[in-house]
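Entry 12.
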Amino acid sequence: MLGLIFLKYISDAFDEQYQHLKSIEAETGANPEDKDEYTADRIFYVPPSARWTWLQARAKLPTIGKDIDDAMDAIEKDNPSLKGVLPKDYARPALDKQRLGELIDLIGSITLSKGGNGKGKDVLGFVFEYFLGQFADAEGKKGGQFYTPQSIVKILVDMLAPEPEKRVYDGACGSGGMFVQSERFIEMHEHRKGKISIFGQESNPTTYKLAKMNLAIRGIDAKIELGDTLMNDKFPELKVDYVIANPPFNVSDYNINKAETHKWKYGVPPSGNANYAWLQHFVSKLAPYGTAGIVLANGSMSSEIATEGEIRKAMVEADLVDCMVALPSQLFYNTQIPACLWFLARNKTETTKFRNRTNEILFIDAREFGTMISRKQRELTEEDIAKISDTYHKWRSKEEYADYKDVAGFCKSANIQDIRKNNYILTPGRYIDFKEAEENGVPFDEKMQWLTATLSDQMQRANELDEAIKQNLAKIGFEI
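Predicted 3D structure (C-alpha cells):
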C-alpha cells in the first residue's frame, strides 16, 4: 500500500508539471520529457512506463505485479536519491493480482492537482501516515521501531517550536514523523514552508526506506543516512538547533566498547542500558543555543544503575536539563512502559526572547492526561498538548503575557538546591505540590457510616459467592 501511494503521489506531481510544460512548450521551447525541467523544481521524473495512467490502464492484466516492479526500477534509475528505496515485490505469486488491480483503481481516485484545490498532496500524506499507524498497531512491539504515535510527536514539536531556516536532527528517525510534524508546525505558524535543514539516521533498512518515502511524498528535502547511530554516527561534525527523537527504550544489546566514546562527557553509560548513551549523543549535537526534546522510559529520571545517577547529576550541574514531563501510560504501540519527555537546552541564560532560567528545571506531571481511543491505546488530546506546551512556553518566555505559576498537581519550577536535596532524581512527582482533594461537603462521621455499611454489604456478598462456588464444585466431585 505504501509503495503504491508513493507511486501515485510522484506520478501526479510529475503529471501536473508535465501539463504545465506542454502548455508553454511552443512559447518557450520547454521539453516535457527533459528530466532537468523536473529536478529543478524538486519533482521526481517519472518515465512513461511508470506513470500512473499507464499502470492503471493495465490494472486488470495478470502481469500488473511485474509492471509495478518494473515501474519502481525505472523510477529509481532516473532518480538517484531513491536508489534502493522503493519496494519491488509486487510480482510475488502470493499477492492476489486481482486485488492489486482493484487497489490501483481505488488509489487512482485520489487526485493531486491544483484543479483539485491543492488538497491531493495533503490527502496522500495523511493516507500514508494512517497506514504507518495501522501497521505499527498491527505489528505490536515491532511497530514502535518505525512509528511514534502522532500525539507524542506533536507535543515534542509544539514544545520545541522549531523556526524556519534552522537545523533539525533525529538520530533514531524511524519513518520520519518528527520531521513531517516540524515542517507542518512551521507552515501553520509562519504560513509558509519551513525550509528547515533536516538530518536523520536510522539503523533498520526497511524503516530507512519508509522514512525516505514518507518525506519524499511531502516534498521535504532531507539528509537521511542508514546506520547504527551510537556505533557509527554518519554526521560526526553536525551541530543543530533542534534535536527531536524517540530512541528505543532501555536498549541492552549495544556494545558500549565500540560506541563513540568521545561523546561521554558526563560519564560512561552502562553496557546494559543505552538511555544515557542516547542522551549524551543528542547533547553532543546541540549548537550553542540548541534545544532537544527526547522520549525515554520513566526509569531514566531516577535510575541509579551503574553510572546513570552520576551522569544525570553531571547533566543537571551542567544546567542542561530544561524541563521534564511525566506522560500517561498506554501511549505507545511497542510498550506499556510509562514514558517521559526530556527537554534539554544548551544555554538557559536570558536572551531577547527567553527569560533567564539558569539552574532551574520545570517539572510537569501529565500522567492523568489523555483519552482512550481503543482498548489498549491512549492518546493525548489537542487540549492536553496545548496545556502542556503553553505551560512550558510561559515558563521560558519573558513576554508580559507569560504569567507562569506553579500549579499543585500539575507543574512546578524547581531550583538546583531542590534537585540536589532529592539526589538529582528528576521525577516530577518529587517536586510538584500535592493537589488537595476536593471535599464534597459530607461530614466525616456520616461518610464513614456510609462507607462501613457499604463494605459490610460487599463482604456479605463475597461470602455468598464463596458458598455458591463451593456448592458448584461439590456437584462435579470436588471439595474445598
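Annotation: The first helix runs from residue 2 to 28. The domain at 135-430 is CATH 3.40.50.150 (Rossmann fold).
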